[in-house]
Structures are given as C-alpha cells and as structure tokens.
Design a protein that fits this description.
3 strands
C-alpha cells in the first residue's frame, strides 16, 4: 500500500503525476508510445488531434519526465521514459474495474471529455 505520510511537496507531486494521466489524449499518446517510439506526425495521425494540441501534450509529458526525445534529421522521435508506467496503468484498470460504470457517467469532474 502507499505511505500515509506525505510531505507537502510529495503530495503536490503525486497530484500532478495523476493530473498528467488525467487527460484522455495524453493517455492515448502514452499507450501509443508503449507500443513503440513515434514521431510527432505519427502521433497526430493516431490521436486525430491538431498538431499544436498534440505538441502541447507532448511538451507536458516531456517536462514531467514521462517521455524523452531524440532528434533524427528533421524529425523528433518520442519514446516512453518513465519505468513502470505499464504497471501503474494496469493497477489503475484493476482498481477502477468495480466502479468503471460510475466513472464513465461522472459529471462532478471535468471538463466533459466525451
């Protein structure tokens, strides 16, 4: 289980960690990068979002340490950089299983992504 003793900094970092994961587009990008590294163009096509929006999400993921980049000529290739993310997401799927229908219909948090 997790420790019940968090410093204010730890609590803020934990909240931001989950906030990064709290966006459907960022989750999709992470899922795609879990399969293989990809260029921005490939990610834009796969998530069907405008390039500036995908770039903004990638900047967040990079700044927060979820992904890393490598320049290859004119292209920038993104890959997962955070070890254990698959275990965290698998654990989240297990934890949310019993409440998935309630989460899917929740109107108390937003924005309305669906």
């Amino acid at each position: 289980m997790y420790s019940m003793i968090f410093t204010a900094t730890d609590m803020t970092a934990a909240a931001r960690f989950f906030r990064v994961l709290g966006d459907p587009t960022r989750l999709k990008i992470l899922e795609l990068l879990g399969e293989r590294e990809r260029t921005v163009g490939e990610l834009v096509s796969a998530v069907t979002q405008p390039q500036p929006r995908v770039s903004t999400h990638l900047a967040c993921l990079r700044h927060c340490g979820f992904v890393s980049t490598e320049r290859r000529g004119k292209e920038v290739v993104y890959r997962l950089a955070l070890e254990g993310l698959d275990r965290i997401l698998d654990g989240a799927l297990d934890a949310m299983g019993p409440i998935a229908s309630r989460l899917a219909t929740c109107t108390r948090i937003g924005p309305d992504w669906m």
